[in-house]
Specification:
Blueprint lengths: L1 H11 L11 H20 L4 H29 L2 E3 L2 E3 L5 H28 L2 E7 L5 E9 L12 E6 L11 E6 L4 E7 L3 E4 L2 E3 L2 E6 L10 E4 H7 L1
Parallel strand pairs: 4-11, 5-10
Antiparallel strand pairs: 1-2, 3-4, 3-8, 5-11, 6-7, 7-10, 8-9
Helix pairs in contact: 1-2, 2-3, 3-4
Length: about 230
């Protein structure tokens, strides 16, 4: 929450543009720079795709709200020429709004619907590699992931390779089979995983050599783990 507050405060800095004589191009670059800073402060940087998706959502919402306010301004207010005020009436802006507005709304609500469908499967977790060393990770619940070590019966979560130092632990090799491949997965014992203030201990961490291709996700949670703590 504090990151969102800081991002909002940073966005408020753009109001200084009202008091600086920027030309059109400089003003545009200034606003883009501020918006990029807002996103980095609020959501961080996981990968380019995650950042671009946040960037697009920011400008979709801005166009939606800004366009509505602009419409009210040109249609419900009066234009002045010196001391004479007169109503402008219909303009090309209305035509553009009726053509582009529905397209923007359709795209926005489609993306928002997809976000809501997946939101309940996102978790912010604390993975304790040892009792003293923990990392905070963004995890996604894959309901199709029920991978277990066939020997110990422990559930396995998948973690991006760059977050785990394999040189300090002994690997456990677990056989796996998928529709496209099979082989041995390098797994490790860790201290615990904390999900929504609940602790999980009886599991293994599998190392994913290929980066997990989900926006901002570091880890894939095993469905069995959540079933065990409910």
């Amino acid at each position: 929450m504090y990151r969102l507050v800081l991002g909002s405060l940073l966005g408020g800095i753009s109001i200084i543009a009202l008091f600086i004589p920027f030309n059109t191009y400089t003003l545009f670059l200034f606003k883009v720079f501020i918006s990029i800073c807002m996103l980095l402060v609020s959501f961080g940087y996981k990968d380019l795709r995650y950042f671009l998706k946040n960037f697009i959502h920011l400008y979709l919402v801005s166009m939606l709200l800004g366009g509505f306010m602009y419409f009210l301004n040109i249609e419900l207010s009066y234009k002045n020429d010196g001391l004479i005020f007169f109503h402008k009436g219909l303009s090309i802006n209305i035509i553009g709004m009726f053509i582009l507005g529905p397209l923007i709304l359709i795209f926005y609500f489609k993306e928002n619907k997809n976000l809501k469908l997946n939101y309940n499967n996102y978790y912010t977790c604390e993975l304790f590699l040892t009792k003293q060393h923990k990392i905070t990770i963004n995890a996604f619940l894959d309901t199709g992931n029920k991978l277990k070590d066939p020997y110990s019966g422990k559930s396995i979560i998948l973690l991006n390779k760059e977050l785990f130092d394999e040189s300090k632990k002994n690997a456990i090799y677990v056989p796996f089979n998928t529709l496209n491949s099979h082989g041995l997965l390098r797994c490790y014992k860790v201290d615990k995983l904390v999900i929504e203030n609940r602790i999980v201990r009886n599991f293994l961490v599998g190392i994913s050599d290929k980066k997990i291709k989900l926006d901002g996700i570091d880890c894939i949670i095993n469905l069995n783990i959540l079933e065990e703590i409910k």
